Amino acid sequence: MKSTRVRVILAVAAAGVALTACSPTQAGAAAVVGGQRISSSQLDGDVRELEAALAKAGGSAAQLQSYGSLPQLVLYQTATAKQLTIAAERKGVTATDGEVDQLISTAGGQAQYEQQMLQQAVPPSQMRAYAKASLLASKLAAKYGGGTDQAALQRGSQLASKDVQAVKISWNPRYGTFNAQPSQQQPRIFLTNDRFGKAPAAQAEAAPQQ
Predict the structure, then answer these.
(1) Above 90 in pLDDT, residue 184?
(2) 56 burial class (0-12, 13-18, 19+ CB within 10 angstroms)?
(3) Helix 127-145 with 150-165: angle, nearest 10 deg
């Protein structure tokens, strides 16, 4: 499997989206997104699924871990997909199963899309949710854009960004402190040294190519 830079799903929706970096109020939650809970047990299962899928595809978790541990990356992708979905649906923006199928087909079909998602730390069972969130993000921005020129697209992204920011994410602190300003020097999504977030030494020392 070819190693690629982990894309943050929020970039699909709009630039400059901020996330809340406070702890969940619900016991056993890895994160709470707009009042909806992502349980630690769900996250653990998704991480195991991703590890198995990577191994089957001949890939390695080490390819992803410049940006965080697998639990951190899977949690981030799951939470931000949920955040985008909630934001869009609050504004009456929806996506049908047929539209999701079309997006996956355009990306090369289910097998190819699944391989792309594995490289983004998205387990196979979450593939359609990620695809739907990406589609909803684009549709939400287009709702505000009013056209296809660059200025309209930028305006749409800025307005969609506000909708997304209104859906707060609370992270369980055991997965680390959210890195609101990632950089080439510090690309990790969460800043932490605990057992949930510490990357292998070789990976922690290597800066990814931008």
Answers:
(1) no
(2) exposed
(3) 120
